[in-house]
Each structure stands twice: as C-alpha cells, then as structure tokens.
Write a structure and sequence with these properties.
With 283 residues, this protein is α+β, with helices and mostly antiparallel strands. Helix content is 15%, strand content 45%.
Length: 283
C-alpha cells in the first residue's frame, strides 16, 4: 500500500475513534414519561440509557442533565463516576440522589428520580454523557399539564340581524392551550372546524393560562330546517389533551325577543280588553 494511502487510512481511523458520538459511548434511549397530570404522581423517572464498549472503563465519565424551558438550557444534575451526584438549579432538593438506575458502577446514577413533579418542571430535558473515549447527547420533552377549571360555551344575538355569536372560555390551563369551534349536523353527525374565530390567551401570574374565543355565525349560511350543534374544542397540544363542550343551535327567529312595536300592540290589546271588561260590568 502506498504511504499516502496508509496515512489517509490512519487519519480516518483516528477520526472515527476520537470523534464525539462515536460507538465507544452512545446513548441508546432517553426515557421520559408521557404527559402527566399535575399532582397525580409522587415521582417520575427520566433515564439516560447509554452504553460503553465492553473494554472501556469509566475513566472521565460525566453525566449531565439540562432543562430547557425557554431558550437557554440550564444544568439541573451532574454525576461524575465514583462520586456523589449533584442536583442543581430548579431540581435542587427535588431529586432522589440515592436512586440507582443499575448496579453497574459506570451507569449507577445515570437517571433522575424527580420527587413531586409540578408544572414548573415541564420542558425539554437533555442528557449529555462524556468520557475520555467519546461523548453523546439526546433531548426529549416532559410535560406536566393542568386541565381546565371550567369550559363554558354560550350563544347570543348580535346587533346585526340574522347573526349569532358563539363565546367560549376556559380558565386555569397549562401548558398554553388552543381553542376552536366546530359545527355538526345533529341529523347526519360529523363535524367541521369553523374558520374566523378570535382567540385570546392570558398568561396568569401563577403560570397557568386563561383562554377565550368568539365567532359570529350567519344564519343564512345554515341549511334551512336543519338542526345543528356547535362545539367548543379546548386542546393542549403538548399534552395530547382535548375536551369539547357542545350546545344545540337555537334559531334566531325562535329565540328572538319581542320588538318594541310588538310590545306596544300587546299593551294596546290588553288595555282594550280591560276597558271592554269594565264596560260589561257596568251594564
């Protein structure tokens, strides 16, 4: 083999052995629980399941966990092989430092056992593992959600003839929710998302969200004589959570209040009836 070829092969092998994320150290799975309802569990396990080459020792082995809630990942846990693990930042005093993921010295404290998880611990968790032989990292999101305190859908007349307004609101939700309106035929079923809703989300001081939405329905757009139900769908996309509140549509003509002219005619008729009754008694 030519000297130049031998040199290139040697350099390539050196890059493979020394490059980050090489097979000398690799994270196979990052285990994070599926969405959790706030206050429903006493603890959760986040496990950084990495592997080392059979002949590799745990020299220089360091496991770090980070939590990214907004933009910057913050350190929350560190374990240096053969030393006591440390809980940091928002996880200080909230991690069981005696928890063992395995009985092997090189993987014993790779996992987090978080006690009494609450919404402020939601976010993207990243595990970084490094040693003298390589490094690897993986990221996964953990969501702790709060369902609504209430979900209310109402319908009312607008100032424009032939229109009805649908209003929906929900309070105390986490993480940030979404809201849509649905139109459904009572006779044929199915459902169709309605476009044009105005949605407003309020970020509360306690970290929860309030949400409200409105949409105007033109009665002329509905099939005459058909029966409809309108739904308000509240969803928390990150938590795979959905709830729908339904209201049967009340035709404006059926629910419309009496006009001033109609009230005047009724008053006149009532006065005429009283006058005729009094005259009959005098006779």
């Amino acid at each position: 083999m030519a000297p130049e070829v031998t040199t290139l092969v040697g350099v390539a092998l050196l890059l493979v052995v020394c490059s980050p994320g090489s097979w000398a150290l690799r994270i196979g799975q990052l285990h994070v629980p599926s969405p959790i309802r706030n206050g429903s569990v006493k603890d959760v396990i986040l496990d950084c399941d990495y592997s080392l080459d059979p002949g590799e020792k745990s020299e220089g082995l360091v496991v770090k966990w980070f939590l990214n809630q907004e933009t910057n990942p913050l350190p929350v846990y560190q374990w240096i092989a053969n030393k006591i693990p440390q809980d940091l930042g928002v996880l200080r005093n909230r991690v069981d430092l005696m928890y063992h993921a395995t009985d092997q010295p090189s993987t014993r404290h790779r996992a987090l056992r978080i006690l009494n998880p609450t919404i402020e611990l939601s976010g993207e968790y990243r595990c970084e593992v490094s040693s003298f032989y390589g490094e690897d990292s993986k990221t996964k999101k953990m969501i702790i959600y709060v369902p609504e305190e209430n979900l209310e859908l109402t319908q009312s007349k607008t100032t424009v003839e032939g229109q009805v307004r649908l209003s929906c609101e929900a309070d105390g939700v986490f993480p940030k929710p979404e809201m849509t309106f649905i139109k459904r035929s009572i006779e044929y079923g199915g459902g169709k998302i309605m476009d044009g809703a105005e949605v407003r989300v309020t970020d509360r001081k306690d970290g929860l969200f309030d949400i409200e939405a409105d949409i105007v329905v033109d009665e002329a757009s509905l099939d005459e004589g058909a029966q409809y139900a309108f739904g308000c769908e509240l969803s928390i996309p990150d938590a795979n959570y959905t709830l729908i509140e339904w209201e049967n549509y009340e035709a404006i003509s059926a629910a419309a209040p009496l006009s001033a002219g109609s009230l005047s005619l009724l008053a006149l008729a009532a006065w005429a009836w009283l006058w005729s009754t009094a005259a009959a008694r005098r006779l």
